[in-house]
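User: structure tokens for this one?
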Amino acid sequence: MSQASKFTAVLAGVLLGLFSSQFEAQDTVSGKWVWAGNRGWQRITLDLKASGNRLSGSISLGPGSKASNADDWEYFFEPAVFPITSGVIAGNNITFEQAASRTASQARGIPPGPGGREGGRDTVKYYGQIQGNSIALTRDEPARLSDPFSLGTRRFRFVVHRAGSTPSPGTSDIRIETPSPASPLPVSLDVEVMDTAGAAVLSLTKDDFVVQEDGAVRPIVNVVPPNASVNVMLMFDHNLTWLKDPDSLKNVNIQGAWERLFQSSLVFLSRLRLQDRFSIGVFEDTARSALDWRGVQNGRVTAQLGDVVQPPRGQKDIYGMIQWALTRFAGQNGRKSLIVFTDGRDGRLSPGWFADSRQREVIDPLFGLVNDGEAQEFAETLYSLKQSGVKLHFIVINSDHDPEFGPAVVPRRISGLYPGATAGIRDYLSGVRSRLKQLAEISGGRVLYGNTPQDASLLFSDLHQALGVGKIYTLEFQSTQPSDGAFHRIEAGVLNKAFRVTQYRDGYIAH
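Assistant:
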């Protein structure tokens, strides 16, 4: 065979392969694909059309009135339908975008920012891999830094199945890797020691204590004595959920309630010692200082919480606030405590909301699934907190409200939108509380819950007792346990058996 003939044969083979792959892609991708979760709103339908390596079609979010098992959701919303753009097929891999979605701010009718659009047009990207009658997809929504209602990257993984096919059982678990320090960090335990008369014992040293982890004695590497200075930062968010039902806020003196809360916090600060320091900050979508670090001896506190009383401007960034606060502790010597008054609802956990070009609005069908973006940022926050040595304490009031699409001043609660939403609300509240617990626990702090505004004032007034200011020893020991997510019991004692030891926690989870 001549060289020209060989070249022609090779070229023909390449072209045939390309055409075959294009036809195969069309045969493989074109048609309807469906994902349905176990909640009424969780339904996504793809109507795909392949042309060569190009992909077009539409994506429908929500079950709609034709759904047969939508648990009453169909009576309120038809699916929001979006054209698919920028679709590409490359072998078994596909990518496309969901077009013309509005921002959460625009969906609420909130006036746009400069330029006519707050945060600009949404870009919702999908990418995945075809696996027979299934497509494993990832939906990626990057954060819009100019939109206070868009917080963090939302990244979900789900599997659509060809309509009429039988889904394959089981999907791979989503695992979020937490960064590991170069060497294991010490575990800390706060304890108080009392003598037989019930008086605090304040002069013990490292050699007076014994610490056991899961029944095994661990060497104590450091003891912070009760007379060590304390650096306390108070952070307040704008939430109004602590004042009961947002729908009845017209009957509440919001300014007066905040002033009473602030006065209670000043009672706590007045009980700090001369060597102690404190600062105050406020946060919502951003965090900022309201009163810089100062000592008790610096005189009367004149800071006002006017910023807190102002209406919230966006979603609550708890993770960002913690990272910001940790930088503010840099250079402070002694114990470090961050006290956060919040409802705990980081905006990354809130339900997404979509509206198409025909004004059809739906709750994000993927709400309730693991958000990879949120989980990664949460893991990074846990890591930073553990390394910082700052103890994080939450004061949380009236935390059983269902999630809202936006702040409390724009009340649009999920229970008012969707009947039968109990399961979704329960999962959401469980997730919020779980994150608060993990953040406090990894730092050696606590979550203090209350139900009324009066509870909030009492918790602040008695905060010096909850923190053990001037009475606690902090014992630090090196654990040999792996970071396996398991609970490990710790027990402290003193050599003088006449003394009584009170621990602030019984164990920890090895994150």
